[in-house]
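ZP: hey, is the nicotinamide-adenine-dinucleotide complex queued? I don't see it on the tracker
AM: it wasn't, my bad. submitting now with these inputs:
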Amino acid sequence: MRIAMIGAGYVGLVSGACLADFGYEVVCVDTDEHKIAALRAGRVPIYEPGLSELVLANQAAHRLSFTTSLREAGRRAKAIFIAVGTPSLAEVGSADMRYVYDAARAIAEVVEDFTVVVVKSTVPIGAGDEVERILQERLPRDRFAVVSNPEFLREGAAIKDFKQPDRVVIGVDDERARAVMGDIYQPMERAGCQMIYTSRRSSEMIKYAANVFLAMKVTFINEIADLCERLDVDVMDVSRGVGLDDRIGAKFLNPGPGFGGSCFPKDTLALTKLAIEAKAPIRLVETLVEVNDKRKLAMAAKVVRACGGSVAGKRIAVLGLTYKPKTDDMRDAPSLVIIPELQAAGAQVAAYDPEGVGMARAMLPGVEFADNAYACLEGADAAVVITEWDEFRALDLARVKEMLATPILVDLRNIYSIKTMKAHGFRYVSVGRGFNGEGSAGV
Ligand SMILES: NC(=O)c1ccc[n+]([C@@H]2O[C@H](COP(=O)([O-])OP(=O)(O)OC[C@H]3O[C@@H](n4cnc5c(N)ncnc54)[C@H](O)[C@@H]3O)[C@@H](O)[C@H]2O)c1
């Protein structure tokens, strides 16, 4: 079976490489010529654990190839996946659908035999209908079927998530398309993965509802953490005690600087806009968007307080820039709000990230980027952990203390033990860990 994948980004490239690894012939197509040239030369333009190896192996086996020509990619393809971006529309907040609809128009130009058009991008409810309308304007009705197949992979664990998903959701009402989708996902189904067949609109809603629910869990524990700081309660105990209830679940209950990334911020916002347009506003989600935005500013204020009320003229060392570890993705990362806030308050910021510096450089003007954590910390008046990369967990704390001009460490991910940090003589400020983690009794 031959599959075309439109969009060779985080989702398209991972999906394409994994499908090729299952044995399909996959052609990824992207309008970004530099990206395609790099991929053809065997260079994977993003950081995702295991992805380079997977891409190279499948390229070598002639199952995976890259092109800028949809005509070439679409030839003989049984299914054409759309995995292009759906970012927030500036100042409006709803999903910008231009890339998806452009892709649909381009598909209409190349389809020759019956083809399943699979919308993998996260799209508002009804977008599949619009894709169908676009295709119908240009193609006979029996030559295509439009399917919704949202993607649930997490960056940092994307290959495992794609190959062994909790479930595969397929929104389809055409029997021929259902058969093609069943064939494509047969390796997952055979391995015991739950296949959920629904209407196209339900499938589109499942993706938004799932993302918004997870964002809500994160926001919930963040607000509980703030309360814990006031009441001398350790949120880590609370999170554990609550998360072990399997009606709730332990995942996404880690307090931090607010969610970021390429999905939660734009998808929560898009759902609020969609709900308002549908005259069924979701107040809960509107509130969580606002709470999360404010939280990032509040984290900058927390750093200022930890530094005695002012960071003017101080050097602040930031460890971790990406929105989460094991990715180089900087989209909507909390660091993009926290660092400019500190700079505006007069701080000079040095930063280190194991994978994110390439993308961060252009997004964070005025920041001095270091090659490693210790170089970043040298001579700083305070250190701030924004992203919980594993390598920060194992830093030599005695050396860290020595490198800092003042031993202040603000840990926005709670990766260190309060006891250990105090024993080393740090002024250690974390998130939601009671007075000892420097809640309201401290800062
Ligand atoms: N990143 C994630 O973790 C994740 C997870 C689940 C779902 N999603 C959803 O998947 C979609 C893609 O996200 P992403 O992170 O991979 O985006 P991305 O920005 O990394 O990649 C999108 C790619 O599409 C290309 N493109 C745009 N228009 C094109 C066209 N007409 N023809 C060919 N290529 C085109 C761009 O050049 C880019 O390389 C979004 O809707 C997102 O919400 C993302």
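AM: back. The mean pLDDT is 97.
ZP: great, adding it to the tracker
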